[in-house]
Every structure is written in structure tokens, then in C-alpha cells.
Amino acid sequence: MAQDIKLLKLADQGIVAGRVYSWIGPWVSLGKFQKPEDVLASSIPYVIRPTGGKAVLHGHDVTVGLAVPLAAIHCSSRDVKKAYRSVCRPLIEALNGCGMEASLAEDTEHLHRGDRTADCFAFNSANDIVDIYTGKKVCGCALLMTQSALLIQASIPIGQPLINPKFAIRGASDYAAPQWDLSGLAVHLDEVLRYNFSNVSAG
């Protein structure tokens, strides 16, 4: 999480910055407004993200931290929805390049699907990234904005959970990971960012 904050600081200086990383063993990340005692179903290790959103079970996923100056997407700190979508679209392009058929839910027929619980993957809103055919959420995203930049933290499952999600998060959903080629994600993301933005630093 601290490394992602460093990305945001770079974006505050006008640099588009990103990184792709994974987790060792099962962990839960909580949105900054969530309370562990209200969300966790067991004593699983957890961390609190700087971004908002709901709880995510990690260990079977790849995580992307992506920070962009607001000036690069022609947004102000008041343009939350526009800024979020502007940064999600390059991520979607990278996922599509890896063989995933993904889109914002608002661009499909799959809107407002699932149950509103503490689990990020239990519910789809119009702003979520979903499989265009099944409507299943394929990428959980959370946002943090400053006056000059934004940070998105995205969790993308690559296999079945290491533990039953219901043992980790109260109200967790069952989940089937999408089929896609993880090996090309960092390359595709770097290409998409360099195509859409100048002054890119990717790690």
C-alpha cells in the first residue's frame, strides 16, 4: 500500500506511474472507511487501503496500482466519475489485450447485479469492470483523489481463491476467475499508458 502512495506522489508531480504486483498467501484489503470488526469473518491478515471501496480477498489475484495527474485526463478534483472512467479505460484496454472480454458495466446489459455486502466482488455497479458476456465482475477498483492526481488500485483474479471467501469476508460472494493471459499484463498496460499519456513511469 505504501508503494502505491508513492505512485500517487509521482502523479502529483505530473508523472503517470503504475505497478503490477501479487500477494503471498491470502490477505484481505479493506477500503479506508471500513472497520475490520464489521467486515472480517476470521483472523485473516489484513491491510487498510488508502483508497475507498469495499473489502477484497487477495492471494489469487494480480493487483495494479495506477496513478495519473488530473491534468493528463483533463479533469478537476470535482470530476470524480469522469476521472475514474478515464483511468479505467486504459486498464480495460490492457485486459482486453490479454484475452479478457472486459468493459465497464454501463457499456453492457449487466447493471446493478448481486448483493450489496462488504465484499467488493459481490455487486456490480455501472462503473465496475465486468465480463461483457456473463456480467461477472472481473476487476475490483478503488479510487483516491487529491487536488491534482488520482490513484486507482485494481484487483484482478487469476485463479480460484486460496481460501473460501466466506471465511474471510462477511457476505462474500462465490467467484469463478475469468480466463486470460496474465503474462502480458504489465507489457500491455505499459503500452496503453504510453499511447494515452506522456511522462510515464511504470514498474
Question: Can you describe this structure?
Answer:
The chain is of the alpha+beta class and 203 residues long. The chain has one domain: BirA Bifunctional Protein, domain 2 (2-Layer Sandwich), CATH 3.30.930. The protein is built from four helices and twelve strands, in the order H-E-E-H-E-E-E-H-E-E-E-E-E-E-H-E. The protein has helices at 2-12, 36-39, 80-97, 185-196; strands at residues 16-21, 27-30, 46-48, 56-58, 61-69, 102-104, 113-114, 123-124, 129-131, 137-145, 149-157, 200-202. The protein is globular and about 45 Å long. It starts with a helix and ends with a strand.
Describe the secondary-structure layout.
Elements (H helix, E strand, L loop, with lengths): L1 H11 L3 E6 L5 E4 L5 H4 L6 E3 L7 E3 L2 E9 L10 H18 L4 E3 L8 E2 L8 E2 L4 E3 L5 E9 L3 E9 L27 H12 L3 E3 L1
Parallel strand pairs: 1-12, 2-3
Antiparallel strand pairs: 1-5, 2-4, 5-11, 6-9, 7-8, 9-10, 10-11
